[in-house]
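User: Hi! Is it possible to get a structure for several chains at once, not just one? Here's what I have:
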Amino acid sequence: MNTSYRELKERLAEIVDLEKTAELLRWDQQVKMPPGGSAARAERLATLGRIAHERFVDPGIGRLLDGLESFEESRPYDSVEASLVRVTRRDWRKARRVPSDLLVELTRAAALAYPAWVEARQRSDFSLFLPHVERQFELRRRYVDCFDDFDEPYDVLLDDFEPEMRTAQVRRVFERLKAEQIPLVEAVGERGHADHPPGHYPVERQRRFERDVVDRFGFDPEAWRCDETVHPFESAPSRNDIRITTRHFEDSLDGLFAAMHEFGHGLYEHQVAPELERTPLCRGASLGLHESQSRMWENLVGRSRPFWRFFWPRLKETFPQALGDVETDDWFHLVNRVQPSLIRVEADEVTYNLHIILRFELEQDLLSGHLKPTDLPEAWNARMEEYLGVEVPDDRRGVLQDVHWAGGHIGYFPTYALGNVIAAQIWERVQEDLPDLESEFEQGEFGSLRAWLGENLHKHGRKFTTAETLERVVGAPLDPEPYLRYLRDKMESAYALPGSAGPSESSAG
Amino acid sequence: MNTSYRELKERLAEIVDLEKTAELLRWDQQVKMPPGGSAARAERLATLGRIAHERFVDPGIGRLLDGLESFEESRPYDSVEASLVRVTRRDWRKARRVPSDLLVELTRAAALAYPAWVEARQRSDFSLFLPHVERQFELRRRYVDCFDDFDEPYDVLLDDFEPEMRTAQVRRVFERLKAEQIPLVEAVGERGHADHPPGHYPVERQRRFERDVVDRFGFDPEAWRCDETVHPFESAPSRNDIRITTRHFEDSLDGLFAAMHEFGHGLYEHQVAPELERTPLCRGASLGLHESQSRMWENLVGRSRPFWRFFWPRLKETFPQALGDVETDDWFHLVNRVQPSLIRVEADEVTYNLHIILRFELEQDLLSGHLKPTDLPEAWNARMEEYLGVEVPDDRRGVLQDVHWAGGHIGYFPTYALGNVIAAQIWERVQEDLPDLESEFEQGEFGSLRAWLGENLHKHGRKFTTAETLERVVGAPLDPEPYLRYLRDKMESAYALPGSAGPSESSAG
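Assistant: Yes, the chains can be modeled jointly so their relative placement is included. Here is the combined structure:
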């Protein structure tokens, strides 16, 4: 084995150890840490981040990468060796472009913006958050200025979450989604308002049912754990240490869908090839691909007829009081209800992307200066009316609802909708390859889906970009049509709306 | 402020961040981590340890320390500044003496010995553990050889846990304890065998009662948490992030005493002065002093009459079935029962030190070569018979019971008995300073004890050695007499054995 390669790998392994340690610290902070630990925890995280960053941007890494050019070329493109060198070179060049004083300012701005956002949201007073929005976009413009290889400034921000994807490509996909989804929301509007059966779902029973579901999906307590938090999330301190969280309300089963969603994220990290452990390739390739996995288990599996054919009798048995009078078909409608609403995280499959597109457009307008932060609430509310037909009663349920801008995560939102799009693309391929999938789901078996995803997607970790991944997995570029087909089929099946893909319940799952 | 001092402090703060991060990782490993995470966790810990060590032994730290000599002298001995320089110099000189290849071998030897010990204990087969005992003592002899400032080799090992204490001093104290405690064990033998009331203590109720106790002691959920583990322990990721663990059995209340014990450790870390956060002074001064705090809350408080005058009615109310027929006095006898037994961690206040002295003596004999590891079980069993009058039926309940030697923690055991001795010394002083302590305990109030300990001991963190601390707190060197007085008084009060300190229930608490 090439000694430079071995040295590079060892140096990166230490950096990964520090980053993964930070991931565990953040998990602990949100799940277990007593509140008093915050100040010291911030210092620990800052130190870990600083040491990892210093070690990574070290010129020695650059020299190793330079010396490894012919080694990289001598290895197949998809080998661990070539991929590690290629991806690290890309990461290193990006990291070297950002001066550390800007990084410090970004960190400080986020630390100041977060409590301001919490208070602004609580009081529903955008003016408290306004200076921080201004500051965040100003700093992001300085961040963009560190780079020169982009078509438009937003490309730089997007690249942090969706490597090598361009804004123009996302815009084309989103325009197509808008053209179809806005009318679909209007059409389904009158039929879609099915409420949750107004029942009482005791939390202990929810946990038991949910555990049965994720156990069958592949949640193995030897390598996974599940906790409760206000905001569900997934964390992977290592491949065999996958942590998901969920939450429960006595009057709804949302926690179940949160658990399936986070399971999808966790499975991606868990099934990365063991040989990638302690390398920078040991994680999902992009946020969009990650979200495609969570959406797949939550929606394409967890809101499908075959899934409920198996689980419905069990659910009814678990909550006989709440669900005794509900029929299978009603239940299928309920979990696929469509209802334009104010809050992104509560949105359904049909309306969700429109929440995202709105944010994607506003972010670009703010970055370019076409929109002034002070006019943001008005622009937000106008677009909510235009895309979803809902009136925003206050900023708390409008422009202040998301934490992302407080954290400086601009360019992050589009990955949620890309996740929906990619999930549907992959799903069409899964169904071609695994024709017995539906009957397996009907038996409560999910092993072949899990194995297919592991083999075709998860095991590669971060070796390939999203575009390369799609080319390998579905043989096509990013394409909104499978998602639109899926939506129309689902709506036809759930609401007897006119679809355009023929008799399609089977392909919609 | 001196710039060298500021630089030293900043460099040390980063090292403390890494060490405290490792502490959190170890807590997580024992309390929350899925078992599959072990291998990666070991790598993370190794990396954190390596980076912290490299940064600490850096010659730059030595240069800063050299340059700070006159600064140190210009500040009062007990100032943060002088203490930080003094203690760091001591730590740095020690750390520089041990070559990193020996550190690697020590780590590897412990990693290999641990599973061997687990298996040997399971099978009760010392021969499986023998080569590891040989290796550990061989490596510890090499470790001793790195130093030259000791009276006898064991000093070097002891110093890692009890800085600047010498073996000869411990030996003198232990000889005195032996001379008194062996006859005391014999005398109490026939009267001491009071069993736990054979009752059923539902775990949920134990937790509630225990929480009431530690809440009154000062457990504040803003800065503390409590979890369940097989082996109770305490961990302090930061001053306001104190984590204790306990365990519960349906047929005993041992978990309550474990919780009080770990609370004592936690309080020490919690009450270190805020200005010491992120310095190497932000922890207890030695293991002996630490143990004095856990023993104080467990035994001097938690097994005292005033404590039970308050809690007994509550305990009876919590467990009416198990305790309905038990009287206060009987209960006091039960929690203070004396019974020579095989297992150290289950030993009572009278027999405990003898378990320790046995190990202290055997460790010295093994280190010097007077005792061959192969003859260890025989030597162990002979001394158990001599000191405690018990016959060891197998090595599992004999020489294989403790994990310490597998981890290479030789020189650690004596600190447990020193904790008992120091606790009693401090306790006599506490009682002089706080004459109303008993009546406060009888009201379920523990605030003045907590404040006294904070002010006189805890706030100083690691500024002073044990000897310096004792001089400051009790105005005397290490002295076994207070402990022996306490024991005789307790025995007289609980078993009407002839004591030698006159009417003493009040001073024994």
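Confidence is low (pLDDT under 50) at residues 499-509 of chain A. The first strand of chain A starts at residue 224 and ends at 228.

User: Great, thank you!
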